[in-house]
């Protein structure tokens, strides 16, 4: 079934190789006990030799979140709109009257019947709950699906697009195609001062000014995704936020980088004065929401703090994760006047935790 779903997306006949623009695909059987698989799309047409079992579905999704978080407004329907250590969010459709999109979610095992802090929580019908740990493979691991990755369903042998009227059913197969960034982003740099430059550097050594800081960050706050994030990492990336963790697993602490127009949203107006937010804008006055390299395809969580065990292909061959095309490592670094180093570990709400921060760097390695 996976092969049938992949061919229309790749625009190729079964005998033709996949387009090199895609690194890998993630397949989810939307049923209890369903397989979660990784398909290496650089190894030729999908086969047992290029398909690996990552884990299993604990509970399938049978509904949608009709009114999702505001930033889903800026993503495309049928794509990954947010990737985080605690969830992958997929936009089903968007309605202007809602001023946001509708979505389904894929969650790690830590959230199966629990909140991020470990307290009991009800199970949600729009969530595919998995047995995968955060930080391993999918949620901040080597195969986190980047923003903008296209998503399709296979139902009764037919390829389905997500859109208005779509509701997931048990037995559907969900497929996420993850592209190789081109040209590859290597570094984002933020001068932490009013009018400070925001620059992107690419693997071809091109360096581009992509915006400027309208409000610097000086504090950390209680962003719940930090419970599953190590310090000095990207914990979440979506069309309106880069979330940075400053706390260890089991604690909360961090800050957010957001675009100017999102800071004017009703739910984010506090960011105009709260020291836990860096606000950035474009030089030309265009919106940054949903646009790379800051808030669009190209960024992803990559926390690097848990060992990812070798994978076994459906043909029975065991391989190390590094031997399969995967996402680069990500380092978040700070300069307080003494050169670049990891961010200091800070927890809870502290409005002055980052005073003296001169420059923030996100480096893909």
Keywords:
365 residues, mainly beta, 2 domains, 20-stranded mixed β-sheet, two-stranded antiparallel ribbon, globular
Topology overview:
Blueprint: H1 2-10, E1 22-29, E2 35-40, E3 51-59, E4 79-84, E5 87-95, E6 100-107, E7 127-130, E8 151-155, E9 158-161, E10 173-179, E11 185-191, E12 197-202, E13 207-215, E14 233-238, E15 241-245, E16 254-259, H2 260-263, E17 277-281, E18 311-312, E19 318-319, E20 330-335, E21 340-342, E22 359-364
Parallel strand pairs: 6-7, 16-17
Antiparallel strand pairs: 1-2, 1-10, 2-3, 3-7, 4-5, 4-14, 5-6, 8-9, 8-10, 11-12, 11-22, 12-13, 13-17, 14-15, 15-16, 18-19, 20-21, 20-22
Which oligomerization state do the chains in this entry correspond to?
Answer: single chain
Task: Give the proportion of residues in helices.
Answer: under 10%
**Rg, Å, rounded:** 20 Å
End-to-end separation? 35 Å
The figure for the number of domains is: 2
Shape: globular
Number of strands: 22
Strand portion: 35-45%
């Amino acid at each position: 079934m996976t092969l049938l779903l992949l061919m229309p997306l790749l625009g190729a006949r079964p005998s033709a190789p996949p387009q090199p623009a895609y690194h890998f695909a993630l397949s989810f059987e939307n049923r209890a006990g369903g397989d979660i698989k990784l398909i290496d799309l650089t190894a030729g047409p999908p086969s047992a030799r290029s398909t690996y079992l990552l884990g299993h579905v604990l509970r399938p999704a049978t509904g949608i979140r009709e009114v999702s978080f505001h930033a889903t407004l800026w993503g495309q329907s049928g794509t990954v709109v947010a990737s985080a250590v605690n969830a992958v969010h997929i936009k089903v459709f968007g309605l202007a009257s809602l001023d946001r999109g509708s979505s389904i979610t894929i969650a790690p095992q830590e959230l199966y019947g629990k909140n991020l802090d470990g307290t009991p929580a009800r199970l949600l019908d729009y969530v595919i709950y998995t047995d995968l740990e955060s930080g391993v493979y999918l949620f901040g691991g080597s195969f986190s699906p980047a923003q903008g990755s296209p998503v399709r369903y296979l139902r009764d042998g037919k390829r389905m697009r997500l859109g208005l009227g779509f509701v997931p059913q048990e037995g559907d197969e969900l497929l996420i195609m993850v592209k190789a960034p081109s040209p590859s982003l290597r570094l984002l740099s933020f001068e932490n001062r009013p009018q400070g430059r925001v620059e992107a550097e690419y693997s071809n050594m091109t360096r581009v000014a992509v915006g400027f800081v309208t409000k610097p960050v000086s504090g950390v706050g209680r962003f719940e995704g930090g419970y599953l994030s190590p310090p000095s990492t990207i914990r979440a990336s979506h069309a309106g936020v880069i979330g940075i963790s400053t706390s260890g697993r089991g604690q909360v602490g961090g800050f957010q980088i957001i675009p100017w127009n999102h800071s004017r949203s009703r739910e984010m107006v506090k960011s105009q004065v709260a020291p836990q937010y860096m606000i950035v804008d474009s030089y030309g006055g265009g919106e940054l929401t949903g646009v790379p390299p800051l808030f669009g395809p190209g960024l992803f969580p990559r926390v690097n703090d848990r060992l990812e065990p070798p994978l076994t292909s459906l043909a029975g061959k065991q391989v190390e994760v590094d031997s399969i095309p995967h996402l680069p490592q990500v380092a978040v670094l700070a300069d307080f006047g003494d050169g670049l180093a990891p961010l200091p570990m800070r927890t809870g709400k502290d409005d002055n935790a980052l005073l003296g921060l001169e420059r923030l760097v996100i480096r893909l390695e």
